[in-house]
Design goal:
The chain is mainly beta. The chain has 5 helices and 16 strands.
Length: 271
């Protein structure tokens, strides 16, 4: 029997789904159930608590991205423990039936767009957006704020600061929870790396919340490759204020904010 006939069958179908999650150079692969599965030379580990909700279709017949549920203890779910993953999480779902394991259908790759926790069940719910959905989004516009515009990403094409010039190779001395102690080749003042990133050996970028001395505090739990002795790169951060743009990055000419913006709107609250 074929995949299509098994999907249409009321009794013969025995569907299995494989889930691949990718963040930078890191990959996690899981299969529903309690037995491992090998597909295209890659092993998928059993994760009994993984699953997805029924797919929804738009008016044009295009399928929306999947909504996936994971146990809160799963490493992928842990990426969102602080409410954000600094890098896109790309999800690919493969589906087949046990009676036709070579007839595999892949859902379009999607990225995690939002997430929420269900404390009652101990699971995290990942809402994903397929590429066609992303293309339907309106292009974000600039905001009038004192800070540099949110769409003006540090080291991006609008900012144009050279990322390599603000990247320092370091060696991990110790890891304690969210804190990472580094052996730095170039000493920096406290706060230099705050709001920047720590690039791991596998290419994952971890957001840095604070920087004091040789210790960085991360926003999300360290990846498995972040261990003592690992060679990493610490990248300077920006608080998106004019003084920082001018003094730290010498880039005031491309600052996309209005630092002299009034505290209140005189048209609504008076002068």
């Amino acid at each position: 029997m074929t995949y299509d006939s098994l999907e249409r069958s009321r009794d013969a179908g025995s569907p299995v789904e494989l889930y691949q999650f990718q963040v930078g150079g890191l990959l996690w692969r899981y299969v529903q159930g309690d037995q491992p599965w090998t597909y295209q030379g890659h092993q998928y580990l059993p994760e009994p608590g993984i699953g997805r909700e029924a797919l929804e279709y738009g008016r044009d017949g295009a399928v929306d991205g999947p909504v996936i549920r994971l146990p809160r203890t799963n490493p992928v779910a842990q990426l969102f423990v602080a409410g954000v993953s600094i890098e896109p999480v790309v999800v690919t779902v493969y589906r087949f039936h046990r009676d036709a394991p070579d007839d595999v259908v892949a859902l379009p790759p999607a990225t995690v767009g939002s997430w929420d926790y269900d404390d009652a069940t101990g699971t995290v719910r990942l809402s994903c957006a397929a590429v066609p959905q992303l293309l339907e989004r309106e292009i974000p516009t600039l905001c009038v704020t004192r800070h540099c515009a949110p769409t003006w990403a540090l080291y991006g094409p609008g900012c144009r600061v050279n990322r390599a010039a603000y990247s320092d190779p370091c060696t991990v001395a110790a890891v304690d929870g969210l804190e990472v102690q580094l052996t730095m080749t170039t000493p920096r003042a406290d706060g230099w790396y705050a709001c920047g990133s720590l690039d791991t050996p596998t290419g994952r970028r971890l957001m840095i919340v604070t920087h004091v001395g040789d210790v960085l505090t991360l926003l999300t739990p360290p990846s498995p490759d972040l261990v003592a002795g690992a060679e990493v790169v610490a990248v300077a951060g920006c608080d998106r204020l004019m003084p920082t743009c001018h003094d730290k990055f010498a880039n005031a000419g491309r600052f996309m904010g209005w630092p002299e913006l009034a505290d209140s709107n005189p048209f609504t609250v008076g002068v």
